[in-house]
Input
Amino acid sequence: MENIIQIKNLTFDYIRESDEGSETIHAIRDVSLDIPEGSFTAIIGRNGSGKSTLAKNLNGLLLPTGGKILVNGWDTADEAHIWDVRQTAGMVFQNPDNQLVASIVEDDVAFGPENLGVPPKEIRERVDEVLKSVDMYPFRTKSPHLLSGGQKQRVAIAGVLAMEPRCIIFDEPTAMLDPQGRQEVMRIIRRLHEEGKTVILITHFMDEAAQADRIVIMDDGRVIADGTPGEIFADEETLRRIRLDVPLAVDMAHRLREYGIPVPADIITQEKLVEYICQYK
Amino acid sequence: MSIQVRNLSYVYNAGMPDEQKALDNVSFEVYNGQIASIIGHTGSGKSTLVQHLNGLLKPSEGTIIVGGTDITEAGVAMREIRQKVGLVFQYPEYQLFEETVAADVAFGPKNLGLDEMEINDRVREALSLVGLDVDEVGERSPFDLSGGQKRRVAIAGIIAMRPQVLILDEPTAGLDPGAHREIIDMIRKVHEKEENIVIFVSHNMDDVAALSDKVLVMDRGQLMMSGTPQEIFHQRERLANAGLDIPSAAKLMMQLRKSGCEVPVDALTREDAAKELAAYLQGKSRKC
Output
């Protein structure tokens, strides 16, 4: 499959000013990754590991200090193609309140295509289509401030979809939502992936990361692991060392082993754990 | 010491077309030495409720008695309420503003009119309770700290007022898993040391089950039910109707039951679930 995003030896430094003078922070240190079109990649890591800085580099919100990023072949540092880059790779942030600009849902979703100069008739069609795809069509004439967090976030996703990106980067999209809002947003993310969009999901929730087909762990600006959810969650020691959680099944299997129950190491999902325990019934 | 909420009601925009009852006849009490949690769907009235408990909102009806004083009465000074009830808002790190960590934590005690020595003692103690060392971070800018550390500084600022009732509104929201665990351990430690009442709002049912002596369930402005975690989390259907979940370990046990394993389903924490599963599996293998 073709790589829609290629990250080549990316480094990103910034200067932090404080009373003791300024210091250079190496937020990203030599990261190389290829993101195949249509894939679903989760990026996990503790706060300050460089996940969000990486995400902001992917669509040119930040530009590399060293190395380069190609989005559909365009270098993000090439000013002539910055709008092509942003239209190809859209971004959804943590706080939905910061992403909504208009006082009516459908106006908000139309904001992006209007700025692209899309003809009005086509804008109407796109807005209706994307609102339906995030299950927010019935709310199209409502004011965003009357919506729940999960609904607002879905409107923000619709606003990005209206630009018809091939890849969407989600930067902790569920961090500020309640459990129901989280489920709503994850359902939409899975659906977009099934429809062929390339999805990059940055999250602190291991059960969300487990739904991706690839997990990348970042720590201290580096990629320290890259594999399938099965491979990543089997390496419990690494996850504990960098103070991330393991999914429930991995944790329970670990606890059962301490009681002397020989749970096999490849049991990392709840379904597998239930299957294992029920063979004794 | 106790906090007693009696027949509390609050109406937004009373008399207007968009009048809305945010709290509807809520009554409960929490006693000394207890940790209580408030759970409920977004918009169920949780945050409105906690804002009443420290006098930020005045009820349309009802009373709140903290250690014998009715804090809803007109004559009660705000300073007196703040000393009794400390409220840590959601994302409290956004409210840090001083140049140094020590100055930020000292802000509340200063406003209580305490002398310099007492303030310094309290700053040191509050920071140590949240797991930070005043000699290490006291003179640093709070904005140079990590997300989890910033939040702990903000919580220290409330603890330094030594409230008899400490309320935390979604204290772990948005934190990474490591910082999440630190905050939960910190709440337990502060509660043990200060012997205060802790009330926290949470969406995380694992934390609710692990920490609470009492769970208060809010739904559409009403207190739908209250009781021990055992009592509350066994009412799965009523919780589901209010849009609420059960702890992850309890969910696993339910799934095992549905798949035909006769495991006991009263475990709420991972520790208890593992113990019961181990006993179940060891019992089975002996029979074979």
Remarks:
- Chain A touches chain B through 40 residues (CB under 8 Å).
